[in-house]
Specification:
Blueprint lengths: L12 H24 L3 H12 L3 H52 L5 H23 L12
Length: 146
């Protein structure tokens, strides 16, 4: 817990809110234009005219957006690794349960619990496998220089 806090003057909040909405609007327009394949130079000029801002503001938004996209790419890489690890763990669990069923059958014991576990693991495996195929698309644009 901090021992001190700095409060901003109350008259600055409307300005900060308007700047946040302006940056958000510029970022949204830029994101859509980059997804459409436009180059940053033409986007920059169009956004300067549309929002009446300077080049520095547009470039700041561009670098923020580029950082968000690279962060998403890195996050997807780690999520893919975790998903592959989970899939291999599920497969290993299924083979373990199948071995237990074989030993239970030899001893003529009930296997319904293990069959149900295998059923659930296979359902989970199918879900995870489908998820790996659907999450292969990464952010749809590459950073371009002006």
């Amino acid at each position: 817990m901090p021992t001190y806090q700095t409060l901003l003057p109350s008259n600055i909040y409307p300005f900060l809110e308007s700047m946040a909405s302006l940056y958000s609007a510029i970022e949204k327009q830029m994101h859509m234009a980059l997804l459409a394949g436009e180059k940053i130079g033409s986007i920059e000029k169009r956004l300067q005219n549309e929002f009446q801002v300077d080049s520095t503001t547009v470039r700041n938004v561009y670098h923020d957006l580029k950082g968000k996209h690279s962060s998403i790419k890195e996050l997807r890489k780690t999520q893919t690794k975790e998903l592959k690890s989970a899939i291999s763990s599920i497969k290993k669990s299924i083979t373990t349960q199948q071995k237990r069923i074989k030993t239970k059958l030899k001893k003529q014991q009930s296997t319904s619990k293990h069959l149900f576990i295998i059923h659930q693991k296979k359902r989970r495996l199918l879900y995870k496998s489908d998820h790996t195929q659907s999450s292969t698309s990464i952010v749809g644009w590459k950073a371009r220089s002006a």
